[in-house]
Design a protein that fits this description.
Elements: H1 4-23, H2 33-65, H3 72-86, H4 88-97, H5 102-130, H6 135-140, H7 144-160, H8 164-179, H9 184-191
Helix pairs in contact: 1-2, 1-3, 1-4, 2-4, 2-8, 3-5, 4-5, 5-7, 5-8, 7-8
């Protein structure tokens, strides 16, 4: 099966996710800097989630660029990833509106964890279909970031029951860890 429809559909869903998130930013009724203070937590949660969705879009793009064909399992795994990412706007709005309350940080972390697991599953199915000598398998190698992210999300979720700020620090740390562009797939594709 050709991968073009999968890429186009995924890009469209991710664009809608970003659009929904920005629509959650409500314009204050008053034209004062004081009025902006009320929307500041929502804006901060938006920034973090925008970065996360951007990271997934970027890595998804690179991963699919290495794919030669897709099958039904890959299509379903991709939908599974998009499902969890589609919940990011809900968690983002809830977290920001409630000033990063513990329960909101827990739900946000669970969504991040499940999106990470879904991404790993998609990546594994692609490698399984492309073979152990595939560009993707060679590029990810031991995948330190991919393996450590679920552990860190779990730590963030546990922290959220005790201290929401520590939980948020973990989520920010994981985002910063992934913000550094990963050139492994690009380099291997350039060589071929």
């Amino acid at each position: 099966m050709n991968k073009n429809r999968l890429e186009a559909f995924s890009d469209g869903v991710l664009a809608i996710i970003l659009t929904i998130m920005v629509l959650e930013l409500k314009v204050p009724e008053e034209a004062t800097f004081e009025a902006l203070k009320a929307v500041f937590p929502v804006f901060i949660s938006y920034i973090l989630s925008f970065i996360y969705v951007g990271i997934y879009w970027n890595n998804h793009h690179h991963m699919l660029h290495s794919v030669t064909r897709v099958n039904g399992k890959i299509l379903w795994a991709n939908l599974h990833l998009l499902f969890w990412l589609s919940l990011v706007p809900f968690a983002t709005g809830w977290m920001g509106e409630n000033h990063f309350a513990k329960a909101t940080m827990t739900v946000y972390g669970v969504i991040l964890l499940m999106a990470g697991v879904a991404y790993w599953l998609l990546q594994s199915l692609i490698i399984g279909s492309q073979g152990e000598n595939s560009i993707l398998k060679k590029a990810i190698g031991k995948d330190f970031k991919g393996l450590s992210s679920p552990v860190l999300y779990t730590i963030g979720i546990i922290f959220s029951f005790f201290n929401e700020w520590l939980s948020g620090a973990v989520y920010i740390f994981v985002a910063l860890m992934w913000l550094v562009p990963d050139k492994r797939i690009e380099r291997l594709l350039e060589k071929q």
